[in-house]
Every structure is written in structure tokens, then in C-alpha cells.
Design goal:
57% helix; mainly alpha
Length: 70
């Protein structure tokens, strides 16, 4: 499952599971911040502000890589 941030899981899924007395698996408590991961991968100080910006950064980096390979 992928969300744009932790809020959908923390504010929607967890309370709903609690109300219905459901136990969520532990992996629902493990998060990777994709914005920070993209910034680290591309060695950028600035963290992308949106999903579309992350995609643009990745596509731009891929374009640069392809240009260097040729």
C-alpha cells in the first residue's frame, strides 16, 4: 500500500481498525518517506513537495543519466 504521507493511515485506518477492534499487522507501523528517499537518492537538499515533483525529479535524473551514458 502506498500513500502520500502517513496521515491517511494514522488518521483514517488506525482509528477505524480500533473502532472495529481489528488488529493491524506490524507493517502498518513501518513507513518510508518517499520524498526524503528521492531527495537522498538524487543527493538534493530540497525535499520534493509533491508526488508529481518527485516524478519530475526522477525523470530528470534518468534523462541526465541516459545523456551521460551516450
Amino acid at each position: 500500500m502506498m500513500t502520500d504521507g502517513q496521515l491517511p493511515i494514522r488518521q483514517c485506518l488506525h482509528p477505524e481498525a480500533w473502532r472495529k477492534q481489528l488488529d493491524l499487522p506490524n507493517y502498518y507501523n513501518a513507513f518510508h518517506d518517499l520524498r526524503k528517499e528521492v531527495a537522498a537518492l538524487l543527493d538534493r537538499d530540497e525535499i520534493p513537495g509533491s508526488v508529481s515533483e518527485m516524478i519530475e525529479c526522477i525523470l530528470f535524473a534518468n534523462h541526465i543519466l541516459q545523456t551521460k551514458i551516450k
